[in-house]
Known about the structure:
The complex is a heterodimer of chains A (221) and B (412).
Chain A: E1 2-12, E2 17-28, E3 33-37, H1 44-51, E4 59-64, E5 67-68, H2 74-84, E6 85-88, H3 100-109, H4 115-128, H5 144-156, E7 162-166, H6 174-191, E8 194-198, H7 202-206, E9 210-215, E10 218-219
Parallel strand pairs in A: 3-8, 3-9, 6-7, 7-8
Antiparallel strand pairs in A: 1-2, 1-4, 4-5, 9-10
Helix pairs in contact in A: 3-4, 3-5, 4-5, 5-6
Chain B: H1 2-15, H2 17-45, E1 57-60, E2 63-69, E3 72-78, H3 82-88, E4 97-102, E5 105-111, E6 114-123, H4 127-130, E7 135-138, H5 143-148, E8 152-156, H6 157-164, E9 174-177, E10 180-188, E11 202-205, E12 222-227, H7 234-246, E13 257-259, H8 265-269, H9 279-312, H10 314-322, H11 327-363, H12 375-402, H13 405-410
Parallel strand pairs in B: 6-11, 8-10
Antiparallel strand pairs in B: 1-12, 2-3, 2-13, 4-12, 5-6, 7-10, 8-11, 9-10
The complex binds adenosine-5'-triphosphate and magnesium ion (MG).
Residues 11, 13, 18, 20, 38, 40-46 of chain A line the site of adenosine-5'-triphosphate.
Amino acid sequence: MIQLKNVKKVYRTATVETLALSDITLNVERGEFLSIMGPSGCGKSTLLNIMGLLDAPTNGEIRIDEEKTDRLSDKQLANFRNRKLGFIFQNYHLINDLKVLDNVELPLLYRGGVPIKRSKLASEALFKVGLSNRMKHFPTQLSGGQKQRVAIARAIVGNPEIILADEPTGNLDSSMGNEVMEILLNLNKNEGTTIVMVTHDENMARKTHRLVRLFDGAQVQ
Amino acid sequence: MLKNYFKIAIAVLKRRKFFTFISLFGISFTLTILMVLAAFIHKVVGDDYPDTKRSRSLFVTELQETGMSQGGMSSASGAPSYWFLNKYAATLKSPEKVTLFSSSRGTNTYVNNKKIALYYKYTDATYWDVLDYEFLEGKPFTAQQVLNGEPVTVISDDIRKEYFGSEGSVVGKYIEADNVRYRVCGVVKSFPIISYMLYSDIYLPFTVSKTSYNDRSYRGNYNAILLGRSSGDLERMHDEFESVVKKLPTSDKVYQNLYCHAKTYLEAYADMGNEGKSGVNFAIIVVSIFTLIVMLLPTLNLININITRIMERSSEIGVRKAFGASSSTLAYQFIVENIILTLLGGLIACVFSFIIMKLLNSSGLIHHLDLSLNWFVLLIGLGIALVFGLLSGVYPAWRMSKLHVVTALREQ
Lengths: 221, 412
Ligand SMILES: Nc1ncnc2c1ncn2[C@@H]1O[C@H](COP(=O)(O)OP(=O)(O)OP(=O)(O)O)[C@@H](O)[C@H]1O
Ligand SMILES: [Mg+2]
């Protein structure tokens, strides 16, 4: 589903050059739930961003669903992300000015389509994460766990084949973290969604199909 | 999609009320100034009482002669004479009608030992056909009365009140000016002096004028209006008059050039007294520069506020990009949001300018001024609000859309 071949990422600033990823070759199968672990600064987020086409590698090649991605224009990339990918972030990144339902609808906005259908899909997604009763709330009125569930609803509303989650439970206590993890596991099992998750939590990682460990930008396991 | 932009725009505006207040104040203040100015300009250049046929009329108001002699420039300009216009304008074939009338002059009259300043104007009988004066009572003087040089007059409603008091009908009564008694034959509705070409308190047949209207000099103090059957006649009338004037010799050998044009109202109004140059372009440049200057500060202010706001919204920008918004979609969203803001300012400006126009109208600064929030003013307001929204939105939107997703998401 996701194929990385000799991916290298160097961050250059005026004074320093940081090698964030040295030479990663990695294959994520369709329907796989993969977790990525490693110490802080080892390049986990960088790897995930490159998989999600949010950032371009310095060298190497990424194929998603057999499609080469290096030649896509800004518009095509946006469209590609919109159809194939869903993102979940550690600090939720909900838009505080919008109600929960509008937050969840967001990916559908960039797809066109009728407003009524959008809000129906969004409420279905909220139902899946158990937040049907919070649709008219604003994000600031929710707990951390609830916010992350809204973020999951937003990630799945467009029915993407791949979900990329960067420490989705990092800001949550263990019971809320487990709840979120449960939702992701079910999504993977029932809908066959391919999931790549960065985590610091061995217990979470153990529940997934496969674990990749990074150290200093290189894959060590 | 627009509805969503609207939602977020309103939410963002509500979030930082102080910024919003400052921006809205700047926008609506600026727009108010410009809309009141537009109302003034519309009053001045639009088809307006009593000159409702302006769009198919040409005006001859200036005659200029220039020449080089003994190393110096000599030039003379002013209104043409009755004789000149009667000979060369009234005889044109292309206009449906031509009226000749003098510029307004001031004099004093006395009623019950009270001095009243009044303007008088000499006209022919066609004047009343070409222009659309509204008669509150009586009727205009006739061609026959003009021919006979009868001392009759049409007076304005204002002077009726001032001279006769508020008593009933005054037709048949006499009004004295410059020691001559004129019999009132009609009373017309007054209008503001902005239409200075037509403004007067009493209108007299030109044949009662003491100065000889048959004086054979080019310059005098008369104007002509050439009325076409439709605005399509304007060009033909203009060209015909132009070809007549071209054949004329100058009035004196010190001059080599004679300029006298039949112009549209706007051209005649905006004239600078130099017949070689167009006053309209100059007027447009002046108004544009004024508009730019008035808009400059609020635009810069808005650009600044917008950039600050973008930085606050970097998380939103990142999320939107991650979930499928392209840079151009985002820029478009932001520009639309900004236009919503400026349109909101426009709405407030409508209320402000309505109030200010009412105040100006009732202040008596200019008599009979009736500025109004008409379609022209609204259209100008809308146009400026849109331009404003674009000007102050494009640069911040461009900056926003260039923000890298990963950077945008990292900033908190
Ligand atoms: N925009 C950037 N410019 C320069 N260096 C960067 C940039 N982004 C990341 N880096 C560097 O690249 C390396 C990898 O960063 P990355 O964010 O991928 O780490 P991480 O494994 O996600 O860490 P954490 O667990 O703390 O989130 C780090 O050394 C970091 O300092
Ligand atoms: Mg990270």
